[in-house]
Write the structure tokens for this entry.
Amino acid sequence: MKSFAICRMNALLRSQLFGAAGALVWSVSDMLVAGNIVGVDALAGIAATVPVFLGAQFLAKLVYCGAGYLFARRQGKFDVAGARQAAGLALEAGVVVGVVTYLAMFFGRDIYFDFMGLTGGVREQAVAYWTWMSVVAALNPFTMAMWRLVYADGEMVTTAIGDLCAPFLVVGLSIAFTKMTGSAAGSALGTLVGGFIADSIMMLHLLRQSNAVRPKWCFSLRGLRELVTYSLTDSSTRLCQSGFMAVLNKMIVFAASTAYLPVAGLVMLVLELREMLDKVGDAYMPIAEMYLGEGNLQRLRELARYGTIVAVVSGFVVFALVWSFAPQIVSLYGIPAGEVYETSVHALKVSALTIPISSMLCFLSSHYLTINRVALSVVETVLEEFVLTAGCVVALGLLYGLDAIWFGLPIGGALTLVLIGAYGWRRNGCFLPMFIPADRSAILNLTFVPVAERIVEIRDAAERFLLGQGVLRETVSKIMLLVEECAMTVADDNGGRRVVLSEVSLSVSADETCVILRDTGRLRDITDGDARVSSLRSFVVSGLMQSYEDRRYLMTIGCNRAAFAFRRQSHRQSEPRGAIAGTAGK
């Protein structure tokens, strides 16, 4: 049986596949709709604005990316108050960043267009598109912070519905508004209205009883610095992409003419595909943060290996699809047959070579951020997304012309991978370092479906492990009873109604033994000693909970999670330490 960690990551990843597909359609729908309905001037006008809107996304990501990381990390440490503060701060900062973004775009529009040298019909379409997209950019920091918080809370139903509806709403409304306006403004207006409806669907999670995203408004400069620190890797991706696309647009005009600017839209598609594959890291992060907060490095190591494999395989699948259907993809953009069309097909195929490499690097970046290697994560991102790729684009364009520019992405990605591999080899003697230290405690993780026969096997396995680690027989007996009765309670609560997965994690250190119980069943605080007694087993469990002072419960990634600690030197319960150290009361 796959471990609880891998099963939960797969479940989150499946729910986020809708988000990945929706985000991809959302990001390219404006060009697709405008190119087919209005013409190549609209496509070129939108492509010319891409660097600015990527820069606006950088400011938004400075807020919302860190929200998910901090919320999940504090949930993993049973820090409910800290998680609520992280949520509140992210939403407050989102409002401020949104206002700043709108003002900057309102007053800087003509300055940017003059710098890019846009004139005639291309400039007219760019201005029309800019008008409504500046509003979208202003709302993004707040709305996306809420999306990330709901993702980190482990909610899969509402997020799947919102992600599934978003692309249909955006595309449908963009088509309708573009036909009404006859300009690129319709595409932007469709994105605005469709996105607002999808955001409203996502907000329904706040009405759920299981919702743990209850913001606590507590703006502070210290908290903002921490939020920005954990947002820096993902946000720097958009900043670097903004710089890269600006360099690419200038090189296209330098090596050919503005008539070839629509080709930049195909390169942008490759960048968005890389962003889509980063969903592997998004699914990995909340689960990894939970195990890291508990000190369960064994599960973290297993999850990191699995995530790397999924990222690489996904990257090769996407690359194969893009390579095979490159001509059809270019046709979707409304580019007519001719030199621009041929160049677009060539650019798309060559740029797609970077996708498998980038997919792995994106996952490693998320992992490094999870384990607090923020500097390494940021350096990797900056190298791949701008320094090496933009440098290769400029060098190849100057030396060999337009057809060579597109090789900048795969060569830049490969060079980044080589540098990260060399660093890992020098520091750890391995090509791709995970930097996960050795386990500080003896750990046993047992994943099972809570049925009577399996529960007995789990109880006996726990006994053998604890006795092998020198835990006192009296403590072992208490833990065996705790594991068996709690697992049977989960079985009773969910019998016949749903497929439930459970996990018992036992951690034995020099001074204490920790027991953590997780399950995907009906949400219930099993540590509540005052819960209603409805059966003999619930009476026994209630009595057990009243006898254990050192117990904690917190719904995490949509699952029940309870932790108990036993001192090794005596038979009395200790103060909260180890996996549940520093947390507030139940």
Residues 104 and 134 are 9 Å apart (CA to CA). The beta strands are 442-448, 502-508, 512-519, 551-553, 560-567. DSSP finds 19 helices and five strands in the chain.
